[in-house]
């Protein structure tokens, strides 16, 4: 453990107000805790909900951020799976590993869960981070990286979250297929993906990995749509410059029925309404976006269209190992994905650039 007493951290001071401040380095208070010295910390799209004031964070002064890679710096007395110096990825949420939800794979609903950077749990955009229930939060980084090590930061949240959304689609249509649904192969399923930010671009890679072909990606940021094209989207639509294109596609290529499934990666009411309008009757909406408004449809609309809707936070810890297996196969496709790597001292500028969609993925580099 370092002899220094304070560290730099990015803290929330109000909507559109984040500051880099000196805070005390955390100390272990429970035997199942670990202190991690951060190497890389990410800025996630869901951080923008806090930044913009749409979602309440912890109290003013809370350290923000929930993505990090680091080195085990101090361990509690009950820790057996880690040693000092281990390089680790932190899951974006904490979970006890013992409750009903943890035992049955619903770790996002652990009775003791919290997300780094929320009330009662300081976040990861800091030089040091306290990790409760550490053996149910941290994973060792594979030794055979063969890529820039910072790319594993995607496994802290966004890659597994993208996998979660795709897995729900797969699971739904496996049931449909078993009941005689007239689709022989998953590649024949039509999917509309709403949102092509970092999580969305992970989701698109995973959809392609599983063989889906007819994937239409919707966004308003040209650079994101260009990347989706490169990754093999069947079609991309800019909803601002092509307001009628989605409806035209449904009428011409889907015989007016709508998409079999929607992967919604935004969470805004407008995105959810688009999902509802675009999905066919009896279709499936897999929503990953952090909802922060009223639902833009009512119970009768859902009833009349027989919509299958799944929303909620990713059970990332339960899915970590299987999503890591896929990530290991796809990690080389992420070259250049992290396009803005900077010091924590530039946090205010980084948040602003990300909020303005001028950069794709921001990473704070503590290695220099």
- Uncertain runs with pLDDT below 50, 5 residues or more? none
Q: What's the gyration radius in Å?
A: 21 Å
CATH architecture of the largest domain: Alpha-Beta Complex
How many individual domains? 2
SS summary, helix count: 10
Structural class label: alpha/beta
Question: The CATH topology of the largest domain is what?
Answer: Quinone Oxidoreductase, Chain A, domain 1
Topology:
Layout: E1 6-14, E2 17-24, E3 34-43, H1 45-51, E4 67-75, E5 87-90, E6 93-94, H2 100-103, E7 114-115, E8 128-131, E9 138-140, H3 158-178, E10 191-194, H4 198-209, E11 215-219, H5 222-230, E12 235-238, H6 245-253, E13 259-264, H7 269-278, E14 279-287, H8 299-305, E15 308-310, H9 316-330, E16 340-342, H10 347-355, E17 362-365
Parallel strand pairs: 10-11, 10-13, 11-12, 13-14, 14-15, 16-17
Antiparallel strand pairs: 1-2, 3-4, 3-8, 3-17, 4-5, 5-9, 6-7
Helix pairs in contact: 3-4, 3-9
Short account of what is shown:
β14, α8 and β15 (308-310) form a beta-alpha-beta unit. The chain has ten helices and 17 strands. With 368 residues, the protein is α/β, with parallel strands linked by helices.
Task: Explain the overall architecture.
The protein has two domains: 6-156 and 315-321 and 335-365, Medium-chain alcohol dehydrogenases, catalytic domain (Quinone Oxidoreductase, Chain A, domain 1, Alpha-Beta Complex), CATH 3.90.180.10; 160-310, Rossmann fold, CATH 3.40.50. Helices cover 28% and strands 24% of the residues. It contains ten helices and 17 strands. Strands 3, 4, 5, 8, 9, 16 and 17 form a seven-stranded mixed sheet that branches. A six-stranded parallel sheet has the order 12-11-10-13-14-15, sandwiched between helices. A two-stranded antiparallel ribbon has the order 1-2. Strand 10, helix 4 (198-209) and strand 11 form a beta-alpha-beta unit. Helix 3 packs across helix 4 and helix 3 crosses helix 9 (316-330). The protein is globular and about 65 Å long. The two termini are 18 Å apart.
